[in-house]
Amino acid sequence: MTDPQIERKLIEIMRIINESDRPVGARIIADELRNRGYNLGERAVRYHLRILDERGFTEKHGYTGRSITLRGKEELEEALIGDRLDFVITRIEDLIYRTDYDPVTKQGNVIVNVSYVDKDDFEKTADLMRSAVNYSISPRVGIFEEDSEDIFVSPGKVGIATVCSITFDGVLLRHGIPVKPNFGGILAVENNEPVVFKDLISYRGTSIDPIKIFLMRQSTLVTGLLQSGSGTILANMRSIPQSAAGDARLLFQQLHESDIGGLLAMDNESGNVLGAPVDVGMSGIVVSVGVNALAVVEEYGIDVTTRPVSMIMDYGTMKTL
């Protein structure tokens, strides 16, 4: 029987190949694995690809790369169910640990989401994102063309990195504040004030990021906020010890001064924050998410593919859109 660690890497390689609309080579796979927390070089990737070829899960296309077979898709759907359920929170916790952004010096790595749009739609996308910046995390973005050496971008597409709200968790942890990501959800807003979560999904026990689920459901109404001040946005909630609430508020203020905002609510005593349950002795913190700016783009009928909590990125390289 193959080592479980190798099996996890094989599954992750199949995920990467399956997410691409063209054959993928070992170098691109190795780069993407590194973004996902797997330190595997090209030679090791080729070894794993040979295993997948032998099992009939992938097909080689000369020097172009591999594509996933129907059998591979079926295996990807069924394999390692328990592992997949923990994959989202494990990946988030890894990126939280790797976040080293300092809001005082305004230097370091932040967690980003990566979204892809057609080149022809980019200018309209940028305009819509600017209009929704108040419901996002930061006005800064990273832009990736199809020849990018950092991430794989399909021909005819543009990659857009937005600051992810899980960055807050990384900053809190780096300053000695234990933090637990709890829920992602749809938050109702009335008269530009957050009211209550209409739906919540826990980050634990799910194989798909909750924010991605709500994006796929097209659950937002950011356009309503832009037009009337009332609508729905994506937000998430994390909890910290009540004793750390004061320090956390100071950090959020420092983050706001470095163009990273989005704090919507912090509750210390009621047992819930905007309808999301909070454990005894903990403070609940709700923030908007970076992909709200892309949600409004989708609401206008532009095709967007988004990978929330995608990778870490040097905040200093990101520019105002």
From TrEMBL:
Q: Which domain of life is it from?
A: Archaea
Q: Which organism is it from?
A: Methanohalophilus euhalobius
UniProt cross-references to Pfam families, sorted A to Z: NRD1_2 (PF01995), WHD_RNase_R (PF08461)
What SUPFAM superfamilies does this protein's entry cite?
Answer: Winged helix' DNA-binding domain
Taxonomy of origin reads:
Archaea, Methanobacteriati, Methanobacteriota, Stenosarchaea group, Methanomicrobia
NrpR regulatory domain mapped to chain residues: 85-319
Task: Give the signal peptide as a residue range, or say none if absent.
Answer: none
Xref: InterPro entries? NRD, NrpR, NrpR_dom_sf, RNase_R_HTH_12, WH_DNA-bd_sf
Gene3D superfamilies assigned: mj0159-like (3.30.70.1360)
Q: Which residues form the Ribonuclease R winged-helix domain?
A: 11-76
Would you tell me the protein name for this molecule?
Answer: DUF128 domain-containing protein
